[in-house]
Amino acid sequence: MFKYQNIWFVNFRGIGNGVVIAPLLRCFEKSYPSVNYYHTENQLLSDSWFVKQAGLKNLKGFSSAVWRRFREEDWEAIESFIREKEIELVINLRNEGPRYDIGYYKFKENAPKKRMNLDFWDLDFDVIERRTAHQNLTGDILALFREHDIDVSDYNSKWLESICEKKDKRRDIGFGMAASQVNKRWPTTKWIELANIILRNSKQNIVLFPGISEDERKEAKRILETLGKEKCKIIHGQSLQNVVLQIGELLCFVSNDSGLLHLAAAINIPPVGLYVSTNSEIWSPYDKTNFAPCQNNFIKKCPDPKSHCGNCFHYYDACPAIVQYGDDINPIDVNEIISRFV
Fold it and tell me: Domain 6-147 falls in which CATH fold?
């Protein structure tokens, strides 16, 4: 019998992380239908439409995103949250580990001293940190669930496929230009080069999905002006649900490593992932059916890698490797991959 009634899932905050965890939370609920749980705040999991699509019923609320790092200045607020929600188990889904997730492991060590009757589940870093080859983070989460007797036999990473248009009704190629960090964004000049190749060699038009920042919108507008409104349009200022429905009408979706890439995979629209600053072996969709990664090999030259995390210490600022070398993802090669799907 499962001894916990209230659980806190600590996770990264991105839309893509919400896409990945939603079907896993469904597996958890099926194994333990009477257990309530909380999750790090997440745009996708906060949207009732997506929660309904995932079939989630026991998600009771969210914790502040900044608490995921367990900085000591946040401990008092975290402790109050744990006591208020009567949390008995913390499940940490972040792949930082003892080497980098220092605040979390200090908090975990100090919990008994604060008379918090807490248990903790962590990814197996004895395995992760000793690997000679990187593996997918979702696979590590599935392994954690199996270790604790959560039935993942019905796990379905393509949990949004039902909203996808039938293949004979799909049209156009999507460009997922959005990315939370500048390091993760493919250069505008390469998007334009790829678009011109597609327009010369196919009947498909281009649909741009920029991020919400002013810089990203300017980049999308530049592409639109270059290609012309007859061959290109921009999707922006819409709800996440409407964005997903628009992606579901595409033949193929080329995207930076972002939440939109994972949404396309969950819808089962063939995604081509552009991994400019992150490692595709760790951050690609778990189900590789109709998925193709394009990896920037210059990230191996970064002087400050976070070895098993799939990124580097310059995630939030300019990565020295990208500043010096750029990326070696070739639009011609990307187009060849697209042609397989369309």
Answer: Rossmann fold (3.40.50)
